[in-house]
Amino acid sequence: MSLKQYQVDAFTHHAFKGNPAAVVVSHRPLADALMRDMAAENNLSETAYVYPDGDAWNIRWFTPTVEVDLCGHATLASAWVLATEYGLLEKEPDGVDIVFNSRSGELRVRVEGESITLDFPAQEVKAQALPEVIAEGLGVNPNKAQCYKAQITNGNYIVILPDEAAVAALAPDMSLLEQIQDGGIIATAEGVEADFVSRFFGPFYGIPEDPVTGSAHCSLAPYWARVLEQNQLWARQISARGGDLQCRVGGDRVFMTGRAVTVSETEWRL
User: Fold this and answer.
1) Phi (first) and psi of residue 11, to 5 degrees
2) Residues 138 and 172 in one domain
3) C-alpha–C-alpha distance, residues 99 and 220, integer Å
4) Considering only CA atoms, which of 126, 142, 124 is closest in space to residue 134?
5) What is the mean pLDDT of residues 213-217?
6) Contact 258, 243 (CB under 8 A)
7) 150-173 residue pLDDT tens
8) Is 265 helix (H, G, I), strand (E, B) or coil?
9) Is the same domain home to 140 and 208?
10) 92 and 159 fall within a common domain
11) What's the confidence (pLDDT) of residue 81?
12) Tens digit of pLDDT for each residue in 71-105?
């Protein structure tokens, strides 16, 4: 059996920036063990597997170690591959709407030209005490940081820092952060140029630091929309590769717009 795979840099319009995702489109479901092995072989933060599901598409996401419930950048990458490599945008040049069925329910993506907009569920956050192991792992003073947790299964911890410089300066101790076994850790602050910035650490998912994390903005965008009193937000994830998202909060949905670049096409021989 042979399977075609595309590697896409998401939330960027420059190759080798943003967050790389592998996208495999098949005619039917693949075995779980095979998807896990392929994702481990890729060793990217996410590999997305897509196949037709009626008028929609089924999508699943795997890190090198686990399957996840929601992934933004690999969904954006998958929509880009379907729109460009599989001709959906050619059939509807004014814009194509793609529906994915996933473990997090129905997800809609709109592709117009080079603009890709994810329609994802918003995640409520609740204030809580900053766990000592996270404070030590990030190297932050717990008296100068607020903590929230997304109210979903294995919701991410959100640590609010004083400013963008404090987020950029973090040098986490992963041996401590990997003790967190119920979600990732997001460090965020109001931005200098962008409305807010963030970094995402996910040793629970086998990802020390994720370059750009769309799903994290399902909780970040609603939080900052309330704090900044605006529903339109420019977000920047300040990892080494970096990436930008235009976010809009509308009711119980978060709309995240970005771009993508296909950097390679390969073939699995199995």
Assistant:
1) 60, 40
2) yes
3) 24
4) 142
5) 97
6) yes
7) 999 999 999 999 999 999 999 999
8) strand
9) yes
10) no
11) 98
12) 999 999 999 999 999 999 999 999 999 999 999 99
Paired residues of 148 in beta bridges? 127, 158
Are 235 and 218 in a shared domain?
Answer: yes
Asked if residue 204 and residue 95 are part of one domain, the reply reads no
> Which residue, among 250, 217, 224, has the nearest Cα to 10 in the 3D structure?
217
The CATH number that applies at residue 84 is 3.10.310.10
Give the pLDDT of residue 262. 98
Q: What's the domain count of the chain?
A: 2
Our answer to whether residue 46 is catalytic in this structure is yes
**Cα 71 from chain centre:** 5
Assigned token pair, 117: 């907009």
Paired tokens of 64: 């090198």
Its domain, for residue 207, covers: 125-251
Asked if 155 contacts 184 with a C-beta cutoff of 8 angstroms, the reply is no
| The amino acid at 153 | T
Residue 115 has a pLDDT of 98
Amino acid at 18: G
Distance CA 140, CA 262 (A): 38
What is the pLDDT at residue 232?
Answer: 98
Q: What is the pLDDT of residues 3-25, one digit of tens each?
A: 999 999 999 999 999 999 999 99
In this structure, are 115 and 137 located in the same domain?
Answer: no
40 and 141, same domain (yes or no): no
Mean of all residue pLDDT scores within the chain: 97
- Catalytic residue (one of 46, 67, 90, 164): 46
